[in-house]
Amino acid sequence: MLSTLAQYINACIGRALECCYERVLRRKPVGIGIGSAAITLAISASMILIIALFGCYWEGWRYLDGVYFGFITLTTIGFGDFVPLHPSPNRDPEGYRWHVLMFTVLSILYFTIGLAIVSSVLLSIRNAMEERSLSGFQVLKEPEED
């Protein structure tokens, strides 16, 4: 599922870049793989920074601890040294069930998309390495045709 979602994300970003090259810049699209890798990397970095903000606000962590938690979680390393404790029954006993439900659903959604973005970063880097127009790299072996 994550691989399919990552491929879909890369395809959408690639089409958007091609459209930008053709319509805005009015030239032939080149370096789509590198551009796609840069965009997906920026998206994953912004997701880490967003989760760091939530960690600061809800958990009372320092911002750098939130960035650390976001990186460790989205890359699936998961040491377990930072664990979100929110929602807590001590903070809001009346709305606790609702907060747990919303926290769980939003966390699953956020981290599923985050993992797909991380997969998309790796996929776009691989695609960029396969581009012939990538400067500084030389094709050693031509692809064989069937």
UniProtKB/TrEMBL annotation:
It is found in: Membrane. Its main location: membrane. GO terms for molecular function: outward rectifier potassium channel activity; potassium ion leak channel activity. GO terms for biological process: stabilization of membrane potential. It comes from the Eukaryota. The keyword Cell wall biogenesis/degradation does not apply. Residues 45-122 form the Potassium channel domain. InterPro entries: 2pore_dom_K_chnl (IPR003280), K_chnl_dom (IPR013099). The chain crosses the membrane at residues 32-54, 66-86, 98-125. Keywords: Ion channel, Ion transport, Membrane, Transmembrane, Transmembrane helix, Transport. One of its GO terms (cellular component) is plasma membrane. Coiled coil: none annotated. The keyword Acyltransferase does not apply. It is a multi-pass membrane protein. This is Potassium channel domain-containing protein. It comes from Pocillopora damicornis (Cauliflower coral). The lineage of its organism: Eukaryota, Metazoa, Cnidaria, Anthozoa, Hexacorallia.
